[in-house]
Design goal:
Number of domains: 1
Number of helices: 14
Distance between the termini: 19 Å
Shape: globular
CATH topology: ABC transporter involved in vitamin B12 uptake, BtuC
Structural class: mainly alpha
Strand content: under 5%
Order of helices and strands: HHHHHHHHHHHHHH
Helix content: over 70%
Number of strands: 0
Oligomer: single chain
Largest sheet: none
Length: 324
């Protein structure tokens, strides 16, 4: 397609506009004139609040989109999302345990949510080993089982929580927010997402081959079991490092890969990069809306769900599909 070479530059321009909007929008609006005048408060808001939040939104949006693309290719399932193997629900269990038993501090929330996400994917992989490891449906079913167990654990923890404080904190975490992002929080997430995302990008050819029949992939030189586990772990590390800081963010990992694939049906590394840029722009726009549409900040998963649900309905209703 002749327009294919213009897709990524156009997406990058939209992302740049979204970054500029994110830096300026909020309950304390900023303008170039404020910054050029040297206003101390404006610069403090920009550097302490807006820049870290914008960096996290770009990192989280791109990381979730990368992971969603990988899951959809790996499982040949157009509805696969980063929580397909229970990582998001596992992170919810970890964060809930932190809030309920350790006071919900920043460090314990992050560490236990990260541990919960990794534990969930480890359990899913362990369950899948008991079935047909060559069938991707086995991993999907294992993920559904782990997801159900994790959600049951979260409900039990909510039942045991103090309704005046702990219950509200657990509910707020599960709806996701970028409100508490600081400079101290972004560096570990950026490094983890950058490292894992970079490896996934380099492994794009092998990931595409994993979408084939296992015997065909093996004939083309792919160690199917080892590569599948490596890719799953990298994608899950990406998601776990994000949600352990931001809370749960829904639909970005489903929406961005589909938009990229609708625009560029050839797939490959170009579509993966396009997916990451689209995911970053979508999360930035959702975050801008979260802090400007109401006097109090709206949890971000509410807005991403409003963005993603109509698209999902339209996708289901379509007679044709990019996967056919």
């Amino acid at each position: 397609m002749t327009h294919r070479k213009f897709l990524l530059p156009a997406a990058l321009l939209i992302l740049a506009a979204a970054i500029l909007l994110s830096l300026c929008a909020g309950r304390y609006p900023l303008t170039p004139a404020d910054l050029l005048s040297g206003d101390e408060m404006s610069w403090k808001v920009l550097m302490v609040l807006r820049v870290p939040r914008t960096i996290m939104a770009v990192t989280a949006g791109a990381g979730l989109a990368f992971a969603g693309s990988v899951y959809q290719l790996l499982f040949r399932n157009p509805l696969a999302a980063p929580d397909i193997i229970g990582v998001s629900s596992g992170a919810s269990v970890g964060a809930s345990v932190s809030i309920l038993f350790f006071g919900g501090g920043l460090l314990t929330n992050t560490l236990l949510a990260f541990t919960g996400g990794l534990t969930a994917v480890g359990l899913a992989l362990l369950l899948a080993r008991g079935g047909d490891r060559r069938n991707t449906a086995t991993f999907v079913l294992a993920g559904i089982a782990v997801n159900a167990l994790a959600e049951a654990a979260v409900m039990f923890l909510k039942y045991a929580a103090d309704p005046n404080q702990q219950l509200a904190a657990i509910d707020f975490w599960t709806m996701g927010s970028l409100a508490g992002i600081t400079r101290e929080k972004i560096l570990p997430t950026v490094l983890c997402v950058g490292f894992c995302g970079g490896l996934l990008f380099l492994l794009q050819r092998q990931i595409t081959l994993l979408a084939l029949d296992p015997d065909e992939a093996a004939l083309l030189g792919v160690d199917v079991d080892r590569m599948r586990h490596l890719v799953l772990i990298l994608a899950t590390l990406t998601v776990a490092s994000i949600v352990s800081v931001t809370g749960l963010i829904s639909f970005i990992g489903l929406l961005a890969p589909h938009i990229a694939r609708l625009l560029d049906r050839r797939g490959g590394s170009h579509a993966l990069a396009l997916s990451g840029v689209i995911g970053a722009a979508l999360l930035l726009l959702a975050d801008c809306a979260a802090r400007t549409l109401s006097s109090s900040e709206i949890p971000i998963s509410i807005l991403t769900s409003f963005m993603g649900a109509p698209f999902l309905i339209w996708l289901i209703a379509r007679r044709d599909s990019v996967w056919q």
